[in-house]
Please model this.
Amino acid sequence: MKKYLSLVKFSHTIFALPFALIGFTFAVTRPNTSFDYKLLLLVLLCMVFARNAAMGFNRWADAKIDGKNPRTAVREIPAGKISSTSALLFVALNCLAFIACTVFINPLCLLLSVPFLAVILGYSYTKRFTSLSHFVLGFGLALAPYGAYLTVRPEWNTTMFFVSLLVFTWVSGFDIIYACQDEQFDKDNQLFSIPSYLGIKRALLVSTITHVFTALLVVVLGLYQQFGFMYWIGAVLFILLLVYQHYLVKPTDLSKVNLAFFTTNGLGSVVFALCFIVEILT
Model:
């Protein structure tokens, strides 16, 4: 179990899960809607199964590439801790479990389950043909808040669109930062990324611009919903953590990429989600 949790970097669930909880909570606080423990459990299970499938598939698809890269050669499949066959079986089981959960939610979620899996699994191959792969990852995680909203209310909602859009720009921006570590490796192995295409300095500029849009969306969302004090506390802290991660990573010094990638973004997602949820519940 420990090996499989490491395979899928289970701790990184902290990036998308808080935003899924935002989507679910916002939905159950709409008029003529009630809280359902069973539905919340299904949403949480869907998040876990979907992420397990996506990360497991990514590790399986990239096993040979990871084995060539000194930074990733210690991962479970290239290191021989988990076989490729076992990893693929793990992915299949999680995909089936995800679809099974949507059966008990509503027809729309069941209908969207396979296309959703296609997006989050298909991302693993995008680095082979486009430098925009970071934005495909961002799109995959951006589906979490709106998907959670749809479990309760299968309808269009502008607020959830803004939430998903800010997740899209936020994740895309920090994935560009993370990819800077492999700039030279990607060039040498004909892999596509914004750092390998533009260089680290300009890639960090693209990431900064992307996160400026994230910050603007956080502000627009607060104004659109006319949120109060708690939301703006979370918004300010989230934006400050965005600024801080760009302070940590410089073109000539990538030693703090992991701190910027995991710590600041993980903390930012939890703080923002907590303040958002408190705001809509009070």
The chain is about 75% helix and 0% strand. The chain has one domain: 2-281.
